[in-house]
Amino acid sequence: MGKTSRVAKELSDWFHGAERVVVAGVGNPIRMDDFVGVKIVQDLCGKVSERVYLIECETVPESYIQQIVDFNPTHVLIIDAAMLGLKPGEYLLVKPGQLKIYPAFSTHMLPLRIFCEYVAETTEAEIALLLIEPKRTEFGEGLSPEVAIAEKEISMLLLSLLPK
Q1: Which of 51, 56, 82, 105 is the least crowded, having the fewest Cβ atoms under 10 Å away?
Q2: Does pTM surpass 0.85?
Q3: Which residue has the higher pLDDT, 109 or 124?
Q4: Is the per-residue pLDDT at 100 higher than 70?
Q5: H/E element, 9
Q6: Angle at 130 between CA 105 and CA 60, to 5 degrees
């Protein structure tokens, strides 16, 4: 089983029983591939049911904690670019506890591990991170070809898995 199909299976299993899902896209719009999480959320807009709450967090996911709590989700999926040592465009589904195993380098103010811990304490939701290896994170706009392909794959995958 290839990495992409393994992640698809892991996501499918993780979404099992999902009633209300928050999909939070994290990333910086002027740091090229770092924007991939927000771009995925933008691609999902208008295509998901009212049981899915989409948030474009950009670089401050902590600013959306109250909205997440108020939605009362069963599942929270955080999507972000992270330097994991993979090939550009490869991605992993990571549980918050695994962030110690995958010490992802991020450009955001509050480490995602702390954000996840707080969301877990304030909701009863299952929490996971979908982390995508960037190729370019310098100042600029637009995704690299490898990350753009991953972004489209992930968007299509999520559309097939999110609650209807």
Answers
A1: 105
A2: yes
A3: 124
A4: no
A5: helix 3-15
A6: 60
Helices (H) and strands (E) in the chain, counts: 5, 5
Give the pair of three-digit tokens for residue 78.
């955080």
Nearest 5°: phi and psi at 58?
A: 50, -125
Q: Is the distance from CB of 76 to CB of 119 less than 8 angstroms? A: yes
pLDDT band at 106 (very low <50, low <70, confident <90, very high): low
What is d(CA 66, CA 42) in angstroms, rounded to the nearest whole number? 21
Q: Which domains, and CATH codes, for the chain?
A: 3-161 (3.40.50.1450)
Q: How is residue 105 written in tokens?
A: 């380098």
CB 52 within 8 A of CB 18: no
For residue 142, pLDDT beyond 60: yes
* CA dist., res. 23 & res. 11, Å (int): 13
Tokens of 146: 């490898």
Average pLDDT, integer, range 142-164? 96
